[in-house]
Amino acid sequence: MSGAHFDHDWQLGELIDSHELPELAAALARLLGGDLALADGSGRIVWGTASPGARRQAVVIELDPVATLCSASASADALTAAGELLHDLLRTRIRYRMASALHLEVVAEDFASLKREHARLAESEARYRQLASELDARVKTQLAELEERQQMLYAAERLASIGQLAAGMAHEINNPLGFARSNLGSFRGYLQKFAALRDDLDHARAAWQALDLDFLLADGDELLDETLAGLERIAHIVADLKAFSNVDRSSEAYADLNTCLREAAAVIEAQLPAGIGLRLDLLPLPPIVCLPGHLKQAFYNILHNALQAIIDSGRPGTIILSSAAEAGRLTVRIRDNGIGMRPEQLAHAFEPFYTTRDVGHGVGLGLATARSIVVAHGGKIALDSAVDAGTTVTLSFPIPDD
Amino acid sequence: MPDQDGKRLSFKLVYYGPAQSGKTTNLLALHEQLAPEQKGEMMSMETQDDRTLFFDLLPLGFHAPSGLSIRCRLFTVPGQVAHDGTRKAVLSRADGVVFVADLQRNQETNNAEAFRSLSENCARVGIDLERLPLVVQFNKSDLPSAIPQTEIRERWQSAPWPLHFASALHGEGVRETFASLLGALYRRQDEACGLSREHGLNEAAFVAGLMGTP
Q: Most A CBs within 10 Å: which of B4, B7, B86, as the mutation test of the A interface?
């Protein structure tokens, strides 16, 4: 029966099972006086043996005989009654079979349509998944592009700060150079006076006095001292620059943070105007593996901000640079008593391109660069500031376990 | 796709339409009015509150001059929206359809919905609605709330199907609808089944054979 449509032509064998047929036929046979043969719709005998000359009674369902009763012993009346009985039985059976076959068809079709729906949903899910992964990839590409651009801007900012530094250094070097040159010019004049003395050695005493050579001797000594000091200062500045100029050297080294701090401080110290001081409170630190050039850049950027904050306040002030090893971390604090930051400035301080300065005075990458360098070292950076009281930048780095 | 085994040709005709538009009433009226050579009992499968849950079945038949036995099995589908699965299964393998619409104005939406379901289910069970013998019957024309025939004819002007008006409950228009479908069925099947060529049946004889001479 499975697979057959509900509306096909139902056969006797489908309506009465082979195991119940003998029982049913035997009962009918007893009612009909003993002799009975049962044929299906095609006339084939399915139970008993048809006697010659037997009466026949067809049982019609819809338009066709589904079964035929053949009996030699039954009266015509009894055979008709038996046919009606069998008809009612078969009619009940066929209703049941059609209903159940239809029900099965509907269930199978419902299931098939559920499966189709499921397949459609699965396909649409796959499509959304693909879309999501494509979006993910696009976001990643754009992020990478952004990062690359940021790196380029960091480089530009670094170049800009190096330019600023160079201008400052030129000024610093020009100053001692100026007075050294002027001193040496005076000294040449002094030497010409000694040459004049040599021409008038006969009246040496009088000439000595006239040429005021006592003063020349004393002042000449002073000029040379001063010039030497100036040259010493230039040499110092050049040494500082050399120490600082390897900021782009990105090789790792086993270094003492205090050395980096001192080198960065030395550069800023050369730029300090009158009334602004720099104090170093450095406690001994264990050396760590780091990129010293990059760290110096970070320290310099923060120190430069501190200097600018004090200049902006219009008051004399001091930058205090301290370091310590505490609770398993290296801590560096750079504190100024300058103008301080307002809360909204504080909130944006680490954002790239955030600046309160006029166009042409820094693009707002100083702190952003410093933070990215500190983070690259596994460190943390924090800002604490109050308007007109000053700012403290705290940096801390992990000390690796040995 | 009629069943054909050489001696017999069996067509399946389906009465389709919205709930309680009078599909079963059509079959009951036909059972009463038709007198073909062979007419089976009307079989109603499971009803609830006068509503068909599975289907109704009325078998009719006659013999062509060639001796071929020609049958028509008339089915109704359950009209309620919830029984769409059953409706689709009953519609499967149909050779012709009578769409029984309810003429009452407040049933217009249900008619449209049922016709849409007919079109969708035809597509799902592989029946080409364009080539399917189909007639449309507007039933309950006796009710005061019925939409006037002129309005319906105007609205359905461009539809390719024969339109009939009926009051199945009073036995009116039912035979005409059925005869119209039989005509369309004959024209669709004549060639493929060799009705005139091999079995000596013209359209009038075919229709008369299944309806019985009144």
A: B86
